[in-house]
Design a protein that fits this description.
single chain; alpha/beta; 14 helices; three-stranded parallel sheet
């Protein structure tokens, strides 16, 4: 969340190019994982499936989308031409095992927020339409962006976001000019810019792949977990999502940097992102939520810069 025109949407949409391809059952509308499919059909040894690799899905959810477009609906064309009732998958089906992005998420209609909450909680989407009942997996990473000045995000949905980054407008005039020049140059010769950063992007992709392989081996000591929970407790964070997300983020941060043990530095780098949006808002509070998290972190961990 942050000021308009700071490149939030551009950054988010670029994430998809960094992620590895995923293996799916060929022509499957739900991007089903072949491994899961085989486990569900172990009794049928003769069953054979063909698979293919696709880019990690990056699906945009428009603010004006209807419930049918998001959840799925009856395939009218097949009903008219073949006289059969068939299901036409929606955006949640396309986003399964990928990313679902909502720009201006704080302006999203309440009925769509409710749908996202249900899917995010269960990992499944259930559709009841005209005598058809279908349930399909809807496990996705929900990403949202917006300007808080245009409206607040519902607390129930805000809590579902694991991390919260605050984006502010650059004040340094020299850096602003550099951004403007680079943007103008990119608009004129995009292919040259793509080629210029191709090698760096491949290195980053490989680093992410290596981190994924290393992730299951990364450990975090119990005394660090206790201190994380103490920070959450002193900040009066509701529930345990803050504790869980901070642990997971610290482990992921360690894996990304090629480590098998989580350090205080890993926790320090992620804890503000994980907790700042979970603090109760006090109109009389003079300290910024991010600064408050850092302050309590330093007191609990006895760690100063």
């Amino acid at each position: 969340m942050g000021d308009r025109g700071t490149g939030k949407s551009t950054t988010i949409r670029a994430i998809a190019d960094l992620l590895p391809q995923i293996e799916i059952i060929k022509d499957d509308p739900f991007n089903s994982n072949p491994i899961d499919f085989k486990k569900e059909n172990e009794s049928n040894e003769k069953l054979k499936i063909s698979t293919e690799y696709i880019k990690t899905p990056m699906i945009d959810l428009p603010l004006g989308a209807t419930e049918d477009r998001v959840c799925g609906t009856i395939d009218i064309e097949k009903a008219l031409t073949e006289g059969k009732k068939a299901f036409e998958p929606g955006l949640l089906a396309k986003a399964n095992r990928g990313l679902l992005y909502v720009d201006e998420v704080n302006l999203l209609d309440d009925h769509l927020v409710d749908i996202l909450l249900d899917s995010a909680a269960s990992g499944w989407n259930t559709v009841e339409r005209e005598g058809i009942s279908i349930r399909h997996p809807a496990r996705f990473v929900l990403i949202g962006s917006g300007n808080p000045e245009e409206g607040e995000l519902r607390p129930q949905l805000l809590d579902r976001f694991g991390m919260h980054a605050e984006i502010k407008t650059v004040k340094d005039p020299i850096l602003r000019v550099k951004v403007v020049k680079d943007r103008i140059s990119f608009d004129m010769i995009p292919d040259a810019w793509t080629l210029l950063y191709e090698e760096q992007q491949k290195k980053l992709q490989n680093k992410i792949l290596e981190a994924r392989k290393l992730l299951p081996t990364v450990k975090i000591k119990e005394d660090l977990q206790i201190k994380i929970s103490e920070v959450c407790s002193r900040l009066d964070v509701d529930g345990l999502r803050g504790d869980i997300v901070t642990n997971r983020a610290a482990i992921a941060h360690a894996a990304y940097h090629g480590k098998t043990k989580v350090t205080i530095n890993d926790i320090q780098n992620v804890i503000t992102l994980c907790l700042r949006h979970r603090l109760r808002k006090d109109p009389l509070e003079s300290i910024d939520s991010g600064s408050k998290v850092i302050q309590i972190f330093q007191e609990v961990f006895e760690f100063l810069d």
